UniProtKB/TrEMBL annotation:
Keyword hit for Transferase: yes
Keyword Transferase part of the UniProt annotation: yes
Active site (UniProt): K198 (proton acceptor)
Family annotation (Pfam families): DegT_DnrJ_EryC1 (PF01041)
Protein name: DegT/DnrJ/EryC1/StrS family aminotransferase
Cofactor(s) this protein requires: pyridoxal 5'-phosphate
Keywords: Aminotransferase, Pyridoxal phosphate, Transferase
C-alpha cells in the first residue's frame, strides 16, 4: 500500500531539521568580544583580520592581489570601474543571474548587453557572447551560477580575440574549478560575495582577486582612499590621487573579516560535505518522475555549490501544476520554492523604461536595447520550471535520503494530487 501524502493527512517524509548557516562558532564570538573590548572596530590600512583574509584568498587562487570589500556588489562595482569602462562602453552580461552581477555596470557609466544562457549549465552562452560583440564592447561578465563554472576556455578565447576584459562573478562558486583552475583566477578579475548564505561568509562582505596591478590599483582608489590606497597604489600616474581616490568607502568591517576567516578555514571541509550530500541527492532525483536533476559537466567541480536547482517536468506528472507540486513537497517537510530572481531582461530597467520611470537615474544611453519577453527564451524557460532546494552541509545524510523519499512519495501520489487539482479548478 502506498504511503498517504502528507497533504492528504499522512505523516511527512522529512522529520530531520535543516541546520542554520553559517554554523555558530564560539571562537568567532570570543574574538569579536576581544575586539570590542580593545576598540578594534575599524581598519584604515592593510592590517588586522582583513589583511589575513586577503592573504588567504591570494594563496588559494594563486593571484598577486586580493582586496576585501563591504559586499560582493561593491567588489563587482570595483572590478568594472577598474576595467576602465567609460560612457558608451558595453559589457556583455548574462540575463540569467542575480541583479548584483549586472547593475554595477550602470554605476560604472557603461551599458550592459544581456545574452541568454546554455540550457544545461545555465551559464552564459559563449556562442551568443561572440555574436553580441561590437566596437563598443569593452568587457564580459560571467556568473558561475549555482556554483557551476561557465565554459571559461570559450569565454577567454573570445575575450582575447577582441581585446576584452573578463570579470568573473564567483559569488555562488567558492572553491569551484574549471578544467583544474579555481574560478576567480581565470579571467582578468574575480569577485566573491561573503554574504550570510555563502560558503565563505562574513555576514556581509565581498572580495576581489586579480593578477593585474592596474586593476588592483584602480579598485583601491575607488573604495579605499587615504591610508590603504597610499600603501597599495605604486604607479605614479595613479598614486597622486591616493589621498582622495574616488571617495567611496568600500572597506570591510573587521567583524566580517573575523567571521570570513573562520569560514574560509573550513572551505575544503564544506566542499567535501556538500559534494557527498548533493551528489546523493542528485542520484535520488534522477529516478524521481517529474523532476530533472541539475547538470554537472565533466570538466568542472562544483566547489561549495549554492543549493540544488532541479527543474520541474509537468509532462511526467500528467501536467500537474507546479504550485501544487511544490505544496505537496512542502507538506512532506521539504524546504522547496521557486528561485527568487527572474531573468533580468524582464525587469523595468531593461524593457525600455523611460527616465521618468527611473527618477534615480539619467536617461538610458542612445541606442540601448529594450528587451521584450521571448527575446532570451532559454533563460525564460528555465525560470518557468526551476525549483530551489536547500544547501546541505552539516546535516546528517539521513535528511538527504528523506528528501529523496519525499520526491518519490509525491510522484506516487499523483492520483490524489490530480483529484485535488480538479476540485480546486471547479471551486
Amino acid at each position: 500500500m502506498k504511503p498517504r501524502l502528507a497533504l492528504c493527512g499522512g505523516p511527512p517524509a522529512v522529520d530531520v531539521a535543516l541546520q542554520s548557516w553559517p554554523p555558530y562558532d564560539a571562537r568567532i564570538a570570543a574574538e569579536v568580544d576581544r575586539m570590542l573590548q580593545s576598540a578594534e572596530v575599524s581598519y584604515y590600512g592593510e592590517e588586522g583580520h582583513v589583511a589575513v583574509l586577503e592573504e588567504k584568498f591570494e594563496r588559494y587562487h594563486s593571484v598577486r592581489y586580493a582586496l576585501a570589500t563591504s559586499s560582493g556588489t561593491a567588489a563587482l562595482h570595483s572590478a568594472f570601474v577598474a576595467c576602465g569602462l567609460r560612457p558608451g562602453d558595453e559589457v556583455i552580461a548574462p540575463t540569467h543571474t542575480f541583479l548584483a552581477t549586472v547593475m554595477p555596470v550602470f554605476a560604472a557609466d557603461a551599458t550592459p548587453v544581456l545574452v541568454d544562457c546554455e540550457s544545461d549549465t545555465e551559464g552564459i552562452d559563449p556562442g551568443l557572447v561572440e555574436k553580441a560583440v561590437t566596437e563598443r564592447t569593452k568587457a564580459i561578465v560571467v556568473t558561475h551560477l549555482w556554483g557551476h563554472p561557465v565554459d571559461m576556455d570559450a569565454i577567454m578565447a573570445i575575450a582575447r580575440s577582441h581585446g576584452l576584459k573578463v570579470v568573473e562573478d564567483c559569488s555562488h562558486a567558492h572553491g569551484a574549478t574549471h578544467r583544474g583552475r579555481v574560478v576567480g583566477s581565470i579571467g582578468d578579475v574575480g569577485c566573491f560575495s561573503l554574504q550570510g548564505k555563502k560558503a565563505v561568509s562574513g555576514g556581509q562582505g565581498g572580495i576581489l582577486v586579480t593578477d593585474d596591478e592596474d586593476i588592483y590599483e584602480r579598485a583601491l582608489l575607488l573604495g579605499h582612499f587615504r591610508v590603504r590606497a597610499e600603501q597599495g597604489v605604486r604607479s605614479p600616474g595613479m598614486r597622486q590621487f591616493a589621498d582622495t581616490g574616488w571617495g567611496l568607502n568600500y572597506r570591510m568591517h573587521p567583524f566580517s573579516a573575523v567571521m570570513a576567516n573562520a569560514t574560509f578555514d573550513r572551505l575544503d571541509e564544506v566542499v567535501e560535505r556538500r559534494r557527498e550530500r548533493h551528489g546523493r541527492l542528485l542520484e535520488l532525483l534522477r529516478v524521481a518522475p517529474g523532476v530533472d536533476e541539475p547538470h554537472v559537466g565533466p570538466e568542472v567541480t562544483m566547489g561549495a555549490w549554492y543549493g540544488i536547482k532541479p527543474r520541474y517536468r509537468p509532462e511526467e506528472l500528467d501536467g500537474l501544476p507546479i504550485d501544487l507540486y511544490i505544496e505537496a513537497l512542502r507538506a512532506e517537510g521539504v524546504k522547496i520554492g521557486r528561485p527568487g530572481s527572474a531573468p533580468l531582461h524582464l525587469s523595468p530597467m531593461f524593457n525600455g523604461a523611460s527616465a521618468e520611470r527611473m527618477p534615480f537615474a539619467g536617461s538610458p544611453p542612445e541606442g540601448r536595447r529594450a528587451y521584450l519577453p521571448g527575446d532570451l527564451p532559454v533563460s525564460e524557460s528555465i525560470h518557468d520550471c526551476a525549483l530551489s532546494l536547500p544547501t546541505f552541509t552539516y546535516e546528517p545524510l539521513e535528511i538527504v535520503e528523506q528528501y529523496g523519499e519525499a520526491f518519490a512519495k509525491v510522484a506516487d501520489g499523483l492520483d490524489d494530487l490530480q483529484r485535488i487539482a480538479k476540485e480546486r479548478a471547479h471551486g
